[in-house]
UniProtKB/TrEMBL annotation:
PROSITE patterns, sorted: GLYCOSYL_HYDROL_F32
Family assignment from sequence similarity: Belongs to the glycosyl hydrolase 32 family.
Glycosyl hydrolase family 32 N-terminal domain ranges (all copies): 37-339
EC number from the UniProt entry: 3.2.1.26
PANTHER family associated with the record: BETA-FRUCTOSIDASE
SMART domains, alphabetized: Glyco_32
EC main group: hydrolase
Glycosyl hydrolase family 32 C-terminal domain: residues covered: 356-486
A Pfam short name: Glyco_hydro_32N
SUPFAM superfamilies membership: Arabinanase/levansucrase/invertase, Concanavalin A-like lectins/glucanases
Matches recorded under Gene3D superfamilies: Exo-inulinase, domain 1, Glycosyl hydrolase domain, family 43
Name of the featured protein: Sucrose-6-phosphate hydrolase
Function field: Enables the bacterium to metabolize sucrose as a sole carbon source.
């Protein structure tokens, strides 16, 4: 299907009943619909937006193009949850309505003040020559769930010296004062990425403070979805730099996400850190956003997808989902990501297996399933050993520890319908241990693998046949021991 510009820039209000019925029918026939991940009813989902705890519930929005699995006129779709696990669809959250947002509502943030939820977003407009115009805008949600936008942008355009790639505001309150700060992703005129800082006393009137200085003057051509927060007393700058070249095992996806851990000097507009940590070692992770839970945990949700990438569900007229929520903590100056503790509530019946393999493979007959959580403690002598997930006649998703090369590896070469093969089908990272713990979440068309309590995370979409539900263990030219627990998943409350 050829998506013309006219088709991509239609408003949700233009959708006919017949169009919606046709979309829903195509989606309902899709064999890859997820069972415990946030996904669009139809059309395309991308960045999570407006993530905040408000009126006793987690409020979350995501970028949504309703008419199909392509990027076009972006709206915000709204979901909410009491427990981060079961999410209720609230439908359309915001749609373009003013001239300055005529070509879409881009990503943004949510923050609570005076019992109202302030929603900041980037308004996108194109002129007659298709030049971009970006403005930072504000909507306010009241206790009854009504959302009303400000008719005039709070920041009408980018400062001098920066292109119109000026988007994705994140707002937070300084812990030592009543001052609010905003960070916005930007591109300098020399096509290098950065972030810009603003300050406000009332969330309505904003003053440009300047560019956020870092120790990385040239690091990609655009910084998307920046986010500053604290974990265990340390400042974290999270963002998605576009245009990084592969470096060893890192940065092999079309675009990547990561963070600096260090110190944010708000007076000097300087974030001090000398190390960028890629947040995910897998294939499909981008544009993460965080919020603070009432108990102080910093919770992250990311887009389980990538820009400029096609997925097999495109033919079913929907694309992408969000990751499961993850708690962030720091060990040895490194961000760890752990599934939120609430995920335990989704566990159903338990199946267990423990034993050793000596240069052999075994099928776990009782473990066959397409949706589950798996915990595996694995130790390997010198060689390769691991798991094969969603196995079928010709399909398997491999995850293994290679102690000779000191690598942990995710291989989706035979995972089913291919995805972004130009960027490779194998991801790996260095691991010097010969014993690791795994916590693996398998949904209909995804895997999320947490290694050593979240020291490493591998996120990937996979698209196997419906019948590919097996699990195998293997050891190549070595001896390995396994202790495995598998829980069926309760997908409905």
């Amino acid at each position: 299907m050829e998506w013309t510009r006219e088709m991509r820039y239609r408003h949700y209000g233009e959708m006919t009943d017949a169009e919606e019925k046709d979309l829903l029918e195509k989606v309902n026939y899709s064999i890859w619909r997820q069972q415990f991940h946030i996904q669009p009813p139809y059309g395309l989902l991308n960045d999570p937006n407006g993530f905040a705890y408000y009126q006793g519930k987690y409020q979350l929005f995501y970028q949504w193009f309703p008419f199909g699995p392509v990027h076009g006129m972006k709206h915000w779709y709204h979901v909410e949850s009491e427990d981060l696990i079961y999410w209720k669809d609230k439908g359309l959250g915001m749609a373009p309505e003013y001239d300055h947002e005529s070509h879409g509502i881009f990503s943004g943030t949510g923050i609570v003040k005076d019992e109202l939820l302030y929603l900041f977003y980037t308004a996108n407009k194109r002129d007659e020559d298709w030049n971009r115009e970006s403005a930072q805008s504000l909507a306010i949600m009241d206790r009854n769930g009504r959302i009303k936008k400000k008719e005039i942008p709070i920041i009408p355009k980018q400062p001098e010296g920066y292109t119109a790639n000026f988007r994705d505001p994140k707002v937070w309150q300084d812990k030592d004062s009543d001052t609010f700060y905003m960070i916005v992703g930007a591109e300098r005129m020399n096509h290098t990425g950065c972030a810009l800082l603003y300050k406000s006393e009332d969330l309505l009137n904003w003053h440009f403070e300047g560019e956020l200085k870092t120790d990385f003057e040239q690091f990609g051509y655009m910084w998307e979805c920046p986010d500053i927060f604290q974990v265990e007393g340390k400042d974290v700058l999270l963002f998605s730099p576009q245009g990084l070249e592969p470096d060893g095992d890192s940065y092999h996806n079309v675009h990547n996400s990561g963070c600096f851990i260090g110190y944010f000097d708000k007076e000097k507009h300087y974030f001090q850190s000398n190390f960028f940590q890629e947040l995910d070692a897998g294939f499909d992770f981008y544009a993460p956003q965080t919020t603070q839970a009432p108990d102080g945990r910093q919770i992250l949700i990311g887009w389980m997808g990538l820009p400029d990438t096609s997925y097999p569900t495109d033919k079913d007229m929907w694309a992408n989902c969000l990751t499961i929520p993850r708690e962030l903590y720091i060990e040895n100056n490194k961000i760890y990501q752990s599934p939120v503790k609430e995920m335990i509530a989704k566990r159903g019946s338990l199946t267990e297996w423990r034993g050793s393999l000596n240069s052999e493979e075994t099928i776990l007959e009782d473990f066959s399933d397409a949706v589950y959580e798996l915990i595996c403690d694995m130790s390997v002598e010198e060689g390769i050993a691991g798991l094969k997930l969603r196995t079928g006649k010709e399909e398997e998703t491999l995850f293994y520890l290679d102690t000779k090369r000191q690598k942990i590896v995710l291989d989706r070469t035979k995972s089913g319908a291919p995805i972004a093969v130009d960027y490779g089908t194998v991801r790996q990272t260095t691991c010097t241990d010969n014993k690791i713990s795994l916590r693996i979440f398998v949904d209909t068309s995804s895997v999320e693998i947490f290694v050593n309590d979240g020291e490493f995370v591998f996120t990937a979409r996979i698209f196997p046949k419906e019948e590919s539900k097996g699990i195998k263990l293997f050891a190549e030219d070595t001896t390995a021991s396994f202790d495995i627990k598998k829980w069926e998943y309760i997908t409905q409350p």
